[in-house]
Structures are given as structure tokens and as C-alpha cells.
């Protein structure tokens, strides 16, 4: 696969970028170099290697989810800019 200047122009148009001709050529060259480097992965022998999503084993480090006492309503609303009927009152954001 190869990136052409036309491909760079298309992406620049989608991103609403204005590029000079020199920049288009430069980006096409850089993107092609990245793709060429990534093609080296196709040469690796991966037979017998288990697919993984992480190279290191992961363990859940979160605490157990246990019910506990809630914050009292008065304390929760203490710093509220405005409250009504025990709830935070905020300006409407929808019409």
C-alpha cells in the first residue's frame, strides 16, 4: 500500500487543513516510510504465539464493591450554588 499526494490532499481536505505543495510531498513521504516500517511485522514468525492484548498480565486492583453509608443530604448540598427540594438546581441547558 502506498500513500499518494492525492491521498494526503483528501485527508487534509477532511481535516480542513491548507497545505503547501512541499508539505503534501513531505507528508506523503513520511506516511509511506511509516507504512514501510510497519510492513516489517509481516515478516515475523508468529506460529505458536498466543494472541494477547497486553504484554504484561493484568490484575484488577479495585476494591470490592461493598455498600456503605451515604453522605448526608445536608452535607452534600452544602456547597451547591442553588438547591430545590433536596436536589441541585442548575440552569436549563435544553429548550
UniProtKB/TrEMBL annotation:
Protein's recorded name: Aspartyl/glutamyl-tRNA(Asn/Gln) amidotransferase subunit C
Gene that encodes it: gatC
EC number per UniProt: 6.3.5.-
Function: Allows the formation of correctly charged Asn-tRNA(Asn) or Gln-tRNA(Gln) through the transamidation of misacylated Asp-tRNA(Asn) or Glu-tRNA(Gln) in organisms which lack either or both of asparaginyl-tRNA or glutaminyl-tRNA synthetases. The reaction takes place in the presence of glutamine and ATP through an activated phospho-Asp-tRNA(Asn) or phospho-Glu-tRNA(Gln).
Gene Ontology biological-process annotations: glutaminyl-tRNAGln biosynthesis via transamidation; regulation of translational fidelity; translation
UniProt key word Ion transport: no
Species classification: Bacteria, Bacillati, Bacillota, Bacilli, Bacillales
Catalytic reactions on record: L-aspartyl-tRNA(Asn) + L-glutamine + ATP + H2O = L-asparaginyl-tRNA(Asn) + L-glutamate + ADP + phosphate + 2 H(+); L-glutamyl-tRNA(Gln) + L-glutamine + ATP + H2O = L-glutaminyl-tRNA(Gln) + L-glutamate + ADP + phosphate + H(+)
Keywords (A to Z) from UniProt: ATP-binding, Ligase, Nucleotide-binding, Protein biosynthesis, Transferase
Gene3D superfamilies for the chain: Glu-tRNAGln amidotransferase C subunit, N-terminal domain
InterPro entries reported for this sequence: Asp/Glu-ADT_sf_sub_c, GatC
Coiled-coil zones: none
Similarity-based family: Belongs to the GatC family.
Subunit structure: Heterotrimer of A, B and C subunits.
GO MF annotation, one: glutaminyl-tRNA synthase (glutamine-hydrolyzing) activity
Protein source organism: Cohnella nanjingensis
Enzyme class label: ligase
Residue stretches spanning the membrane: none
Keyword Transit peptide carried by entry: no
Source species, domain of life: Bacteria
